[in-house]
Amino acid sequence: MVPIHFLSVEHLKLQKKYGKNKGTKIGDILGLISGWGFFMFWFGVWLSPQPKFFIPLLQNFILIIPILNLSMSLFHMFISIPFIIIGAWFGIGSVKVTTLKVAETHRAEKVVSSGLYSRIRHPQYFGGIISHIGITILLSSYFSLITTPVIILLNLLISWKEEKELIKEFGKDYEDYKKKVPMFFPKLKK
Known about the structure:
- The chain contains 8 helices and 2 strands.
- It is mainly alpha-helical and about 190 residues long.
- Strands 1-2 form a two-stranded antiparallel ribbon.
- Strand 1 and strand 2 (about 70-75) form a beta hairpin.
């Protein structure tokens, strides 16, 4: 999905090659494919048959959920819920600021610097990583746990590529925004 995502954010290149309307549509379609592809990848990593890991504290308290034959440690559940809530808050909050269309197609009309975007440049990716960690702990998914560094690296690469393209599209406006707002660790104070 990474090459498709990289191509989907090359808005100016696609418009130059295929014309403004067709290039925009191609970019939008590639953005949808890569976004949903990553989402399905995450589900596969979380739910595929794999060994379980347990944090060795209260591991005898296991909750069996008959749906999908899942077993969850109650301790893992208590640890994971804050991660999932915080991750969802970042993801949903950022979509509320930019709109679902921008989130799905990776095509903004302007530099957005309000709401969560005034504190972090990539709140959706940050929220996705935090949620991933929470769901990994909740489901005790060993392969998901060991792929977490790869997922973080992929999100950093994607963010880097998006920022290169945003500088091409918005120039000094985006450069100024980058100087004020951190990429991946939210600013807690204004």
